[in-house]
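Problem statement: downstream parser choked on a complex file, so we are re-checking the raw output for the 3-acetylpyridine adenine dinucleotide run. The parser issue turned out to be on our end (a line-ending mismatch), but while we're here, posting the original submission so the record is complete.
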Amino acid sequence: MTTAQGSAPGAGAKADFDAIIIGAGFSGMYMLHSLRDKLDMNATVFEAGDGVGGTWYWNRYPGARCDSDSYIYCYTFDKNLLQEWTWSERYPEQDEILRYLEHCAERFDLKPDIQFGKRVVGMAFDDSTELWTVRTDKGDVATARFVITAVGALSAANTPPFKGLETFKGKWYHTSQWPHDGVDFTARRVGVIGTGATAVQAIPEIAQQAKHLTVFQRTPAFCVPARNGRVDPEVTKARKADYEGIRQRIKDSFFGFELSFLPKAVLDTTPEEREQEFDRMWDAGGFAFWLANYQDMFFSKEANDVIADYLKRKIRSTVNDPVVAEKLTPKNYPYGTKRQPLDTNYFETFNKKNVLLVDASTDGPIEEITPTGIRAGGKEHPLDIIVVATGFDALTGPLKKLGIKGRGGRMLAQEWELGPQTYLGVAIAGYPNLFTITGPQSPSVLSNMPVSIEQHVEWITECIAHMRRNKLSTIEATAQAQDAWGAHVAEIVSSTLMPGANSWYMGANIDGKARRFLPYLGPEGVSGYRRKCAEIADKGYEGFVFARQGQGGTMQPIAAE
Ligand code: N01
């Protein structure tokens, strides 16, 4: 079904749907539930995949699992759901998360309103009707008053234009477009390109199966052990009894986890004292070392060096061959400024006889993919399978791919050539009635995603409810509010070490992409951001203008109820 009768809030031109949601992952599913079941809106979802799950539908590479603790990597909006679902492991595997999301889709009866196998390829705002027209690759054309993008921050795969890739006679796979029936590495010579969070999960798994594995590293990663394992049933019981407290604590936290920085500067500690703290965080595993370390870690290079030194020593004491250990040791960016990979036997894997590390700086970069392998630093490495673990065109990529045209035909992809411009990361001046869940310039990827997703979905739902109560037909961020938000995002990050890394947070992983810090960092993380969004709503949506039906193009601020 591509069209249906809908009653647009604020009356006026008839749309096929009150709202079109793009994507059926964590965010699109909750958005649909909220608009349809709380506001009684006629909403539909276009989803490119053949099932729900988003990230967890697509990323099926070996070792794929969540790096957030399972008890908080889930929806928290429904008390009963929290009680009825039990996670098996500290970090569930991809298939368990997908089963969870399937369960949610059934539980909230979402599938009848999701149109699977349809990728949105264009959408345009019509100034006269004040409606969006959305087109899919299957030929659907549907109108709606609101469009909500729920496309995820890491869904536009980045396959660098490696010379000769098309000539490779073996098989190659991008980790985020993994075959659903898996890949058999038995007796194969495998190459993995990349050593980010994905590759760090995949490499130890592939090395166990493959005859030979060659890892092509451009930048070494600082890894911390995941320390995955079954969850003790007593711990699960205690958490279920305390979910209200947990929910509040993650909402009030900096990053959406039950973690906070140590209220102390590492430079004010003795070497013995900090070594003890480092050991404690290291033994705890997970993001504690990254997100609950000394509070000066992200601000002072000297402090960062002290912390990074601990991780470098761990690499050197784990990897047997000192030359390989040196290649695996990060040297040219501060710790924590690239996404923290969590590992299970990653460095140990380089002690295996069937694993070879080819490092771009010391052995030479990838020059070409040949019909039979990869040539790097003048040497050809024969391969049967290549795993391309080169990540994503993060945050802006998925939105640019939607072909969004706003007021007067302005094109988002063009306007964002020098970086994203948003208000709060959830709205864009010139694009009325468009909301971007966990969009650029919101906490998004710098938080435990479900926490930020729920916050955005609930804020958007309340905003649309407000419009319906006040018979408002369009909402649009002002250019001034947008500029001020962009300046604020940039100013905050400039006081940190984050710009010092060639990270995907900075857009540095994509050739030609503007170097801009893409998510929003602070000053009080997700809790401060949540408060800011709430204050803006309380002030009658400060920084936005509303219009009633028929005022398109000449929007006037309208006082809130
Ligand atoms: O991608 P990445 P990823 N030639 O961009 C290298 C999330 N995630 O898929 O560092 C050679 O981090 C690149 O090198 P460099 C998580 O947020 C979540 O691993 O740019 N190499 C790097 O080593 C994560 O951060 C979970 O110099 C090239 C690698 O490829 C995000 O996904 C689990 C290259 C890419 O690393 C992305 O991680 C896993 C080139 N031309 C991942 N281009 C969860 O827990 C790039 N590289 C939910």
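For whoever reads this later: Residues 66-67, 154, 160, 193-199, 201, 218-219, 339, 366, 389-392, 445, 502, 504, 509 surround 3-acetylpyridine adenine dinucleotide (CB under 6 Å).
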